[in-house]
């Protein structure tokens, strides 16, 4: 049993395999990164070489988007902080009202205790007389 001899050049096949793998990865990357509609525009940009202009426009639009988002975030944060401060003042006012009611009720209870003591003394004195 003789083994068949392998008579092909390994370096050439290896190089072709590398090129095939790189080409396949590039195609896969284009499919994953770009949807079908934008693939045509990317191919046109590669052919025309207008990437520098589009990147500058993209950078400016990204800056505008960031600025608008930043201003919107600051506005929402300011509104939330104002609402929290309003709630704190409202809560403080209600607590003050409740505490003043409690103080007045405490005074009423003390007056009722004094009246109760006076009534008890009077009753005790009237029993002693009888």
UniProtKB/TrEMBL annotation:
Designated name of the protein: LSME1 protein
Domain of life, per lineage: Eukaryota
Transmembrane segment boundaries: 65-89
UniProt keyword terms in alphabetical order: Membrane, Transmembrane, Transmembrane helix
Keyword Membrane: yes
A Pfam family it matches: DUF4577
Ranges of compositional bias, category Polar residues: 48-57
UniProt-annotated stretches for the region Disordered: 36-57
Organism: Hypocryptadius cinnamomeus
């Amino acid at each position: 049993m003789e083994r068949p001899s392998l008579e092909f050049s390994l370096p050439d096949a290896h190089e072709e395999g590398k090129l095939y793998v790189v080409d396949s990865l590039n195609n896969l990357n284009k499919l994953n990164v770009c949807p079908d509609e934008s693939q045509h525009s990317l191919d046109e940009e590669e052919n025309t070489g207008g990437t520098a202009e589009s990147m500058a426009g993209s950078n400016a639009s990204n800056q505008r988007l960031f600025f608008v988002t930043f201003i919107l975030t600051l506005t929402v944060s300011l509104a939330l902080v104002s609402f929290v401060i309003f709630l704190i003042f409202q809560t403080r006012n209600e607590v003050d009202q409740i505490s003043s009611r409690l103080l007045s009720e405490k005074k009423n209870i003390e007056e009722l205790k004094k009246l109760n003591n006076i009534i008890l003394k009077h009753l005790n004195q009237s029993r002693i007389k009888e």
